[in-house]
Amino acid sequence: MNEFVIKTSTRETCTVILQENALAHLAKHVGTSPFYFTDENVFRLYRTQIEKALPTAQGYTMSAGEAFKTPETLFKLLEAMAGAGLTKRSALVAVGGGVVGDLGGLAAGLYMRGIPFVFVPTTLLADVDAAIGGKTAIDFCGVKNLLGTIRQPRAVLVDSSFLCTLPRRELVCGLGEIVKHAALLPSLFNRLCSWDGGLFDLDFLAGLIPENLRLKAEIVSHDPTDAGLRKRLNLGHTTAHAIELFKCGLSHGECVLLGIFYEAELAKRYLDCDGEYLARLQALCMRISEVGPKEIDVASCARLARLDKKNPESGKVALVVPTKKGECAMLELPFEEYEGALAAIRSAL
Ligand SMILES: NC(=O)c1ccc[n+]([C@@H]2O[C@H](COP(=O)([O-])OP(=O)(O)OC[C@H]3O[C@@H](n4cnc5c(N)ncnc54)[C@H](O)[C@@H]3O)[C@@H](O)[C@H]2O)c1
Ligand SMILES: [Zn+2]
Known about the structure:
Layout: E1 2-7, E2 13-18, E3 35-39, H1 40-53, E4 58-62, H2 71-83, E5 92-96, H3 98-110, E6 117-121, H4 124-130, E7 135-140, E8 143-150, E9 155-158, H5 168-182, H6 186-194, H7 202-222, H8 237-246, H9 252-270, H10 275-288, H11 298-308, E10 316-322, E11 328-334, H12 335-348
Parallel strand pairs: 2-9, 3-4, 3-5, 5-6, 6-9
Antiparallel strand pairs: 1-2, 7-8, 10-11
Helix pairs in contact: 2-3, 4-5, 4-7, 5-6, 5-9, 5-10, 8-9, 8-11, 9-10, 11-12
C-alpha cells in the first residue's frame, strides 16, 4: 500500500491510497451509512465485490458513457440518495471511470450542501488523471463540463487490477493523458521511451500510475482552483478538442495523441524548442495511436471548432505546447494563422 495526502490552499485534504483489492478495504473510509454510485458496465463486472464491500448500502447505477453525464442523471442520482435517506454524514462512494467520478463528486457536493465523497477509479484515465484534483462536472446545453465545481474527495482508492477488464480503446484514453504528463515530467518520458515491451502491457501501465498521480497531485496542490499552473494540463488539448468535436468516432485518447503530435509541430515552427526531443515525443504518440496524423483534416476541424465557439472575440487561439524535455509554453496564434499552419504541417507530412 502506498498512501499520500493532497493538501490544497483551500484547506481541503484528499487521501490518495494505492491499494490492491481496494474494494475489500473500502469500508474503513466510508463511515456507517455509505451509498454507492456506479455505471452499468462496472456494476455488471464488479457487482459481487461492491456488494460485499458495502453489504448494507443502497446504490444507484447509471447508464454508461459520456452521453449520460447530464442533469437528468445527476437528478436521478440525487433522488436515489434522498430516497435512501442519506444524512450529512453519509459518504457517497463512486466506483467507475471519469464520468462516474465527475457526476458523483458533483452530487456529493450538492446533497445537503456537501457530504463526504470517496472515489474508486476503474479506468486508466481516471487512475492517472480524473481521480485527482476535485474537478466535478456534467455536460449542459451541448457543452462538455459546462456545470461543475472544484471540491476535493475525502479519499481516492486506486487499484490497478480494474484495468484487466478495460477495453483497449479505454486504455488508449488513459495513455493519451500519460503521454501528456510525460511531456511535463522527464522521468516518465524516459520510462515510456526506454520500455521495449508493448505499451498496452497492463503491469507496465499499472507501474506508471503512481508517478502520474503524484505529478497531477503536485500541480493541483499548487493550483487547486485552476488559476495558473494547472493550465499546463491542457497540453495538446486545444487541438485535441477540435479533432474530437468533428471526428466523433475517435476516442478522447486518440485525439489527445494527435493533438500533442500537431502541437509539437507548431512548437517547431513558432518557438525555441528541442526538435530532436519533440520528434521522440511525436513518435511515442504514434506508437499508441491507431490513427495517423495525415488521416485527419485537422485544419478543417480547427476552423469548425472556431465557428462553433461561443466567444471568439479575441480572434486568437491559446495553446499549451510541448517545447523541450519537461517543458511547455503558451502559444497564442490568430485563428487564420493556426488553421493555415495546421494545413501546411499536414501537407508536409
Ligand atoms: N475531473 C477531472 O479532473 C477529469 C479529468 C479528465 C477527464 N475527466 C472526465 O472523465 C470522463 C472520461 O473518463 P473515462 O475515460 O474514465 O470514461 P468513462 O467513465 O465513460 O469510462 C469509459 C468506459 O469504460 C467503462 N469501464 C469503466 N471501468 C471499467 C472497467 N474496469 N472494465 C471495463 N469497463 C470499464 C465504462 O462503463 C465506460 O463505458 C470525461 O467525462 C471527462 O470529462 C475528468
Ligand atoms: Zn484529456
